[in-house]
Amino acid sequence: MGFSRASVTDLLVLKNELITDPQTLGYSVFISSLDYGSVAGILNVVGGGTIDPERVTAMVLQGAVDAGEFAALTSDAKAMWLSILQAAGERGLSATNSNIRAQILNIWGAGTTTRTNLGAIQTRPASRMEMLFGESTTVTPQAVGRALNQT
Fold first, then answer.
1. Distance (Å) of CA 45 to CA 94, 114, 117
2. Cα 12–14–15 angle (5° rounding)?
3. What are the pLDDT digits (tens) for 59-109?
4. Quick one: pLDDT at residue 15?
5. How many Å apart are CA 30 and CA 13, to the nearest integer?
6. CA-based torsion, 82, 87, 90, 96: positive or negative
7. 47 Cα distance to chain centroid
């Protein structure tokens, strides 16, 4: 999701980020030389932190499953897991839905490899823009300039 149509409030949040540089990412040297492309690059690079993904696809969920543990599930647990995967599909399930999380925890017992693997996909590396404005958010050099000129 691009940041090009950001609200005034979002632009002010971005301006504050650029001026205060709370993570010490080094914006100021590029801002002073009007190199907004480099500033956008810093903001868009993945790896500065983590976020909880908004959605998780069936492929990601199934990729976390240990085959032996799946084989050992009861028929009711297998049916529940398969219904969760079907609901997820390619578009994904809400990763923050507490009911879905509870259902998954009921299927995969504590201490299982699958539960550990599923726990690992609850967060993912993120860019600074994603940390500030949500998953898949990126910024252009033009939006950086607009933010810096916002009053």
1. 25, 30, 25
2. 60
3. 999 999 999 999 999 999 999 999 999 999 888 998 888 899 899 999 999
4. 96
5. 19
6. negative
7. 11
